[in-house]
Design brief:
Largest sheet: 6 strands, antiparallel
Structural class: alpha/beta
Helix content: 40-55%
Number of domains: 2
CATH superfamily of the largest domain: 2-enoyl-CoA Hydratase, Chain A, domain 1
Strand content: 15-25%
Number of helices: 9
Number of strands: 12
Order of helices and strands: HHHEHEEHEHEEHEHEEEEEH
Distance between the termini: 105 Å
Length: 300
Amino acid sequence: MKNIKIVKKSFFFTCTALLFAALALTACGDANSRYVRLAVHLMDKNGLFAEGPAWAAARQEALSAKPASLEEAQETVRAALKVAGGKHSFIYKADDVREDTAREWEMPEVRIEDGIAVITLPHFSGNNEEAQKYTQSTLDAIPDSVRGAVIDLRGNTGGNMYPMIAAVHRFLPDDTILRFRTRKKTQPILTSFVTRVAGVSQGSLLEVPVALLTDGQTASSGEAVLICFRGLDRARTFGAPTAGYASANQPFPMPDGSKLVLTTGCDMARTGEEFCDDPIAPDVLTDTPLEDALNWLNNQ
């Protein structure tokens, strides 16, 4: 009888353990499904391309999934993201959010060559104080006497566009320099707003010819700077086509600490042209963009 009691007790504990394991799996499964449902809800409300038959099919597929883990839930969401937000949308995992709260970035460089300001404008991802430093240091290095400018956007992979644009805003007219078009509205971006966000005073216009250099790494906010000059008679672009990420992204925090980074709008130039997932071709396709740009400026 003693042995029987032990067997019964072991059986009881085994059944109890299995029950708790099943409950844990059920709870986990529910959490994973909730993750997917929340992501789909955010895409429904904000995704630039979250409409039409393609999105209806992707939405149904995502909501019908039964993810058994967070990884499976995120894979399901990634597939839907590519439809609702295009190639610029992604999931920023919780570990990456914790470890990479701000990317490393470099300060702009300005040199004056025979009256022409050559401005190397790298990506930016710092805080407000750093944004002001990034912008003001560039503005301070550009004399009023310049007769032209080169804005080098090669390798500028993006980040916060406002300090970048504000750093070269004196070459832009005081008007609507860019627009974001979402599914529901179009938002104009004015020069005065850009300088205010960057924390600097708006300077007077330097109405001189401007050459912009691009390559295959010019992306996102780097492309936004380029688009601000689109349609200006005194601006010309040199180099190679850009990366094709000219769209506005918005991060949404998720329950596990990750972020859903969703494309919510496309960039619009003053010309009315829309840019999003396609590369932007330069006016002059060249392997020697700086030399060609300086030659063009010297002939203006």
